[in-house]
Amino acid sequence: MTHFQPYFRHATLREKGRRQAIRGPAYMFNEKGTSLTAEEEHFLDSAEYGNIPVVRKMLEESKTLNFNCVDYMGQNALQLAVGNEHLEVTELLLKKENLARVGDALLLAISKGYVRIVEAILNHPAFAQGQRLTLSPLEQELRDDDFYAYDEDGTRFSHDITPIILAAHCQEYEIVHILLLKGARIERPHDYFCKCNECMEKQRKDSFSHSRSRMNAYKGLASAAYLSLSSEDPVLTALELSNELARLANIETEFKVTHHCAFFLGLRVFRWGSKTDHCHSPVNKCLELNIFVAHPNCQQQLLTMWYENLSGLRQQSIAVKFLAVFGVSIGLPFLAIAYWIAPCSKVQTPDGLFTGIFTQGLD
Q1: Residue 281 lies in a domain
Q2: Which of 81, 166, 164, 88 is nearest to 127 (CA)?
Q3: How many domains are contained in the chain?
Q4: Rounded CA separation 169/158 (Å)
Q5: How far apart are CA 43 and CA 8, in angstroms?
Q6: Span between the terminal Cα atoms of the chain, in Å
Q7: Of the residues 252, 275, 295, which one is the last residue of a structural domain?
Q8: Do 293 and 246 lie in a common domain?
């Protein structure tokens, strides 16, 4: 520790001031920032600002340095180096064994379009098997503890995003080409009415995340970068995707209303000026309320309440829904009489299909 004291004393006030300005008031209330040792904080500073000699010396000579330590924002040295496009520092860190959050660093480099850093990270032994590039952080969580940051503080990306999907979203042609050569592919989502165990389990655990992962996959499949580089006939593939997405737009409606509100907001700004104009107008207040209600999370909650006790009905075809409504219409008078005679009794029905909804409606 004492060997590195000269480096600590020669840290410039400009760098310290800049870092404290970035931290802001939240740094004083965050335990992660105060848990760092002086050596670890200096190491993170050096990685962030690209101080190659200091990073190399500390990695080679320090016996107590934890190179996987994180700052107040939950970012480790590799993520800080990648975020500031320090290729040499990134290469030094990638030589260390048991390096954490390599997957998050790759996603960060892809989002910023740093092609050389992406190539350096893909040469890491962790990507010797192409399976790493096809698994999302959510799928990888059960396999590794430190390849991705599975908490909300350590990553800025959705847990269902894979490197190839993110590159396609960002329209990074060169990075998409590199990932395709490595064997990465975007798997087409199963049919919406698929009844396989995997789809049923995802739908049961978190239907909103399941819908969001499907949307992210389709956005990647429909991107110009992925279509032009992965398909032998991009035009035909685009037409097939267009037909499929037009059909799904009427089924998975959580995200559809959001785009309508965003489009209306664009028209309002174009007509009336900036978003800050007329901030107290009734139209603006109604629009803000509409945007809130149209948010995918709100739409998902509304759909959950609408299909309460009938969650399986949403995935059924129109014919099954029609038969269910017809059965409700025919049986409602008899059930009303039965409920009036014995309101506290329970009737055993297959999967509790109708009991809950009838008793709620009659209350």
Answers
A1: yes
A2: 164
A3: 4
A4: 13
A5: 10
A6: 71
A7: 252
A8: no
Mark whether 284 and 330 lie in a shared domain.
no
Residue 311 resides in a domain: no
Residues 33 and 171 reside in one and the same domain: yes
Residue 67 lies in a domain: yes
Of 24 and 195, the structure prediction assigns the larger pLDDT to 195
Strand partners, 76: 70
Could you give the C-alpha distances from 239 to 35, 151, 231, 297, in angstroms and in order? 54, 38, 12, 30
Last residue of a domain, one of 179, 198, 228: 179
Cβ burial of 318 (10 Å; 0-12, 13-18, 19+) is exposed
pLDDT tens digits, 321-363: 788 888 888 888 888 888 888 877 765 554 444 444 444 444 4
- Arithmetic mean of pLDDT, 237-242: 86
Place of tokens 């603006």: 284
Q: Are residues 110 and 131 located together in one domain of the fold?
A: yes
Residue ranges making up the domain that contains 301: 253-306
Is-contact 223 171, C-beta < 8 A? yes
Residue with tokens 């014995």: 342
Q: Which helix (H) or strand (E) element contains residue 305? A: helix 296-306
340 and 203 in one domain?
A: no
pLDDT digits (tens, 9 = 90+) for 260-276: 444 444 444 444 444 45
Residues 136 and 208 in one domain: no
Same domain, 39 and 130: yes
What backbone phi and psi angles, to 5 degrees, belong to 76? -90, 180
Q: Tokens for 220? A: 């990647």
296 domain residue, yes or no: yes
What is the spatial distance between Cα 292 and Cα 305, in angstroms, rounded to a whole number?
A: 17
Whole-number Å distance between alpha carbons of 361 and 248? 30
Q: CA-CA distance, 296 to 260, in Å (whole number)?
A: 12
Q: 315 pLDDT band (50/70/90 cuts)? A: low
Question: Is residue 244 domain-shared with residue 257, that is, in the same domain?
Answer: no
What is the residue whose two structure tokens read 């016996």?
Answer: 63
pLDDT reported for residue 42 = 94
- Dist CA 312 CA 220 (whole Å): 28
Report which listed range, 3-7, 29-33, 236-240, is most confident.
236-240
Show the tokens assigned to 105.
Answer: 């660093």
Rounded Cα–Cα distance for residues 106 and 122 (Å):
8
Residue 250: name the closest of 192, 164, 295 by CA. 192
